[in-house]
Write a structure and sequence with these properties.
This protein is about 40% helix and about 15% strand. A hairpin with a 6-residue loop joins strand 3 and strand 4. Helix 1 crosses helix 2 and helix 2 packs across helix 4. It is of the alpha+beta class. The chain has six helices and seven strands. The protein is elongated, with a radius of gyration of 19 Å. The chain folds into two domains: about 50 residues, no CATH class; about 120 residues, no CATH class.
């Protein structure tokens, strides 16, 4: 059975006899040393298979800092291009700034709460935004996540850098909104 460490995304293939016995067996990742509890899936009756408690059999690990950074760069170029087009019609004054804020909010909130679960940059890099249980997020949660990025930014970008140091690779705005960014493939 394939198991992915939720901390460092290292994959392991474990045989049934390699899984510790007990009510809540734990395994340790050989790469990062993280302890992870595994459970027998409750949806599969009479199965000897186990999986990480962090996700389902489709769980492909959390998206890391550099992958998320690259997605943000792609999204930035997309929004910049759209801003030039809209700015040409509106002008570069206060109304143009307001239009840019609204455009960025709607781009992130609509795309991340859609069935695609991610912006164009995230889709290109194979990552998506989920709630803490792997489900799609609502428009309201996507809006909270988007505007929470203001906090991640004003504390000298530390909110973004947290992705590299948290167990589930969450930025501050992910924690505030109760979201995860995971690999799609």
């Amino acid at each position: 059975m394939k198991i992915v460490c939720p901390t460092c995304n290292t994959s392991y293939n474990l045989q049934g006899d390699e899984i510790p016995q007990g009510k809540r067996p734990e395994v340790m990742c050989k790469k990062c040393g993280g302890q992870t509890v595994i459970e027998s899936p409750s949806t599969i009756a009479d199965s000897a298979e186990f999986e990480f408690i962090a996700g389902t059999s489709q769980f492909m690990g959390y998206a890391g800092f550099w992958k998320r950074f690259a997605a943000a760069i792609i999204d930035g170029f997309i929004l910049m291009f759209a801003g030039f087009i809209i700015g040409g019609f509106i002008g570069a004054h206060a109304l143009g700034n307001i239009a840019g804020i609204i455009m960025g909010w709607l781009y992130f909130a609509i795309m991340e709460s859609s069935s695609k679960q991610g912006t164009l940059g995230k889709m290109i890099l194979g990552i998506k935004v989920t709630d803490l249980y792997g489900n799609a997020i609502s428009f309201g949660k996507a809006t909270l996540r988007h505007f929470s990025k203001i906090i991640s930014t004003i504390i000298l970008l530390v909110g973004y850098l947290m992705v590299g140091f948290t167990a589930k690779k969450q930025a501050l705005h992910d924690m505030i909104a109760g979201c995860l960014v995971v690999n799609r493939r």
